[in-house]
Design brief:
The protein has three domains: 232 residues, Metallo-beta-lactamase, Chain A (4-Layer Sandwich), CATH 3.60.15; 247 residues, Ribonuclease Z/Hydroxyacylglutathione hydrolase-like (Metallo-beta-lactamase, Chain A), CATH 3.60.15; 103 residues, Sandwich (Immunoglobulin-like). The chain is built from 14 helices and 37 strands. The strands form seven sheets. It has a seven-stranded mixed β-sheet. β8 and β9 form a beta hairpin.
Length: 658
């Protein structure tokens, strides 16, 4: 907003605008001061000795800082990992005049420290999707990697020191096609959190290029890369899971990044799984995630409670399944993937338990998936189900926009990948799937975006309640609940939730974490009484008539919260306002963004009805020649409520399009 307009806005609120310090301002539309260009690093004279050796007619191995595999097709080649880049000096001797692609299995420097040579020759580089930022944005990684107070000991210290342009991101479970050959991208975390294995049939044999997942039968390259958190054995657990998935692919040869290629590797993979499992039990006292087994609640209801969040398979007589939730494979998977996720990425997901359901319980099709609520630990597998199993997604109506437009919101635990919802249900709506009848109810408390789903399975009344309530370790005759304000909580949210259960009196609750448990009216009544006390705390601790304003950090918010835009573009933003008062509320807002932007109107005024909501729209236009202060930055909104100036109480994040 121009300074004069901003001063007028502040005067209208009875506030004098502060005079800024006398720093010369750049002319409108002028570029920011030039930053020095990144200079290339000095190079050493070290290089590996030796020459490529033949594995098969068109597959060669060169021992560099890692094993570099050359796949030849005529006079062209595809390289798997690159090491120091010395392989380029040997290609002519193999009859190769052109390298079409380099595919990386993971981000460690021994795999890719010579990538600058490939860049200088115009060779495109493809990398694991969930490690792309550790190639393309390596300098930024080093700007932000904490070293003091080091408890996150993950060896991402073995990241490149320079940015490397990435031509393609290798998405998990996708296929990379080159010269008529398909390379299947199998996610195999363990050595690193974003590692992949590339599986292809070459010269008549099914070969798996596994990075550093294993070194030799029963052995891995090192142990320190498997420790992510202080004292942990997370990479061991992830590696066991990944080796089991690799074994299911039935490769005829395993080609590791260090160590010799292994023919007929099934026994060697099995030996490695066993040795890692024994070590994991020794270090942690727990069984590996791969050994978790579901609970058969009844003939038609299977509970997977050892996964990150519990997910339930309701099995019909036809072999179809309705999933309630489908999150990460284990707490180890989710906790470590979540922490490693780049700010603009989505959490990694690996498929789990579906093959077991097919093998042991007669599953034929994952027909429908329904989220108990909108949190990523419960439904980060939904996009995978849609893509790879043609699963339909049904949900409670207020979750639809969160799933389809997640950039719109600043809520706890939101999944960064949009997906389409096939059917939405209203509060109290009943529906039938296969031979089962359901009723869906809005169930706020843990989050505003949560349902309770009621049905009868094998003669028992069941409620799927997400993260609403759990058995209470205090053993005080009540159920345990939780309170997260960023999830959108109002003073009576939890009371609405427990009253829904009291009205329907289920015999068993299937929670979002842990195993199903029996419930009766007495414990629900005691829980209701406890939640009345919580509500009274809210009333007592917060200013009078301001209770819900003090619980909801987003009662005024900018939509979308994460704005994706480029210079030269215009975008409409919405300012959503919620009024918790018993009388109408007057609101004035003014967007605070870069001075070169055009923002219309400069001031938005609206009257929000009592206990209602209203929206004002603002149009933002960015000059075509404008230079952003960075790839990601914040804007804010100044707010006046009923004549009282509240200041910049809400914000949004702007991400510039590449």
């Amino acid at each position: 907003m121009p300074n004069e307009s901003r001063r007028r806005f502040l005067r209208s609120a009875g506030i004098a605008a502060a005079t800024p310090a006398a720093t010369p301002a750049p002319a409108p539309g002028a570029a920011p001061p030039a930053q020095p260009a990144a200079r290339p690093y000095r190079r050493t004279r070290f290089s590996p000795s030796g020459a490529p050796r033949k594995i098969s007619d068109n597959v060669f191995l060169f021992e560099d800082t890692c094993n570099v595999y050359v796949i030849r097709k005529g006079s062209s080649a595809l390289l798997i990992d690159f090491g120091s880049g010395k392989i380029l000096d040997h290609l002519a001797g193999l009859g190769i005049s052109k390298v079409d692609w380099i595919l990386h299995t993971h981000h460690h420097r021994d795999q890719c420290q010579g990538d600058w040579k490939a860049v200088s020759r115009g060779i495109p580089i493809a990398v694991p999707a969930h490690e792309k930022h550790l190639f393309a944005d390596a300098r930024n990684f080093w700007r932000n990697r904490r070293i003091f107070h080091l408890y996150y000991v993950r060896n991402d210290f073995n990241t490149l020191t320079e940015d490397i342009p990435v031509a393609s991101a290798l998405q998990d479970y996708s296929t990379f096609r080159w010269q008529g050959t398909d390379f299947y991208v199998l996610p195999t975390p363990g050595h690193t959190l974003g590692s992949i294995t590339l599986v292809a049939t070459l010269d008549g044999r099914r070969r798996a290029f596994t990075g550093d997942l294993m070194y030799a039968p029963g052995k891995i390259q090192n142990l320190y890369d498997t420790q992510i958190n202080y004292g942990g054995s997370e990479g061991i657990d992830l590696g066991i899971f990944s080796l089991a998935r690799l074994r299911e692919m039935k490769p005829e040869q395993v080609c590791p990044s260090h160590g010799a290629p292994m023919d007929d590797p099934d026994a060697g993979i099995g030996q490695t799984i066993q040795r890692l499992s024994d070590y994991y039990r020794f270090q942690t006292g727990n069984n590996p995630s791969e050994e978790g087994v579901p609970q058969v609640v009844s003939r038609h209801l299977i509970c997977h409670y050892q996964t990150t969040s519990s997910f339930y398979a309701i099995l019909s007589n036809s072999g179809k399944a309705l999933f309630i939730d489908y999150g990460s494979a284990s707490p180890v998977h989710f906790g470590n993937f979540e922490r490693a996720t780049a700010p603009t990425d989505r959490i990694r997901f690996v498929e789990h338990n579906i093959d077991r359901l097919k093998r042991d319980y007669g599953l034929k099709q994952v027909d429908v998936a329904m989220p108990s609520h909108m949190h990523d630990d419960h439904m980060n597998g939904f996009p995978h189900l849609v893509r790879h199993h043609s699963t339909r997604v049904w949900c409670y109506e207020n979750m639809v926009d969160v799933f389809e437009h997640p950039r719109g919101y600043n809520l706890g635990c939101i999944l960064g990948e949009p997906f389409k919802v096939d059917r939405a249900y209203r509060d109290g709506e009943r529906f039938r799937w296969e031979e089962f009848d359901f009723e869906i109810k809005h169930s706020p408390g843990h989050t505003e975006y949560q349902m309770a789903l009621f049905t009868t399975i094998d003669g028992k009344r069941v409620a799927f309640t997400g993260d609403a309530f759990f058995p209470n370790p205090r053993n005080d005759g009540t159920l345990r609940h939780n309170l997260i304000f960023r999830n959108h909580v109002e003073n009576d949210s939890h009371l609405k939730c427990v009253r829904t259960l009291l009205e329907r009196e289920p015999e068993m609750i299937c929670p979002g974490h842990g195993q199903p448990y029996p419930v009766d009216r007495s414990i629900l009544l005691a829980t209701e009484q406890k939640l009345r006390r919580q509500q009274q705390f809210f009333f007592d601790m917060l200013p009078e008539n301001e209770t819900d304003f003090g619980l909801d950090p987003s009662w005024v918010r900018i939509y979308p919260y994460q704005i994706l835009i480029a210079p030269g573009e215009t975008q409409k933003l919405d300012l959503h306002v919620r009024n918790y008062n018993a009388s109408p509320m007057k609101i004035e807002t003014s967007l605070v963004g870069p001075s070169e932007w055009s923002i219309t109107p400069e001031v938005s005024a609206l009257t929000v009805p009592a206990r209602g909501a209203a929206t004002a729209s603002v149009t933002v236009s960015i000059p075509r020649n404008w230079s952003a202060p960075g790839p990601r930055f914040a804007i804010a909104a100044d707010v006046v409520r009923d004549g009282k100036y509240l200041g910049q109480i809400t914000e949004a994040v702007v991400e510039m399009k590449a």
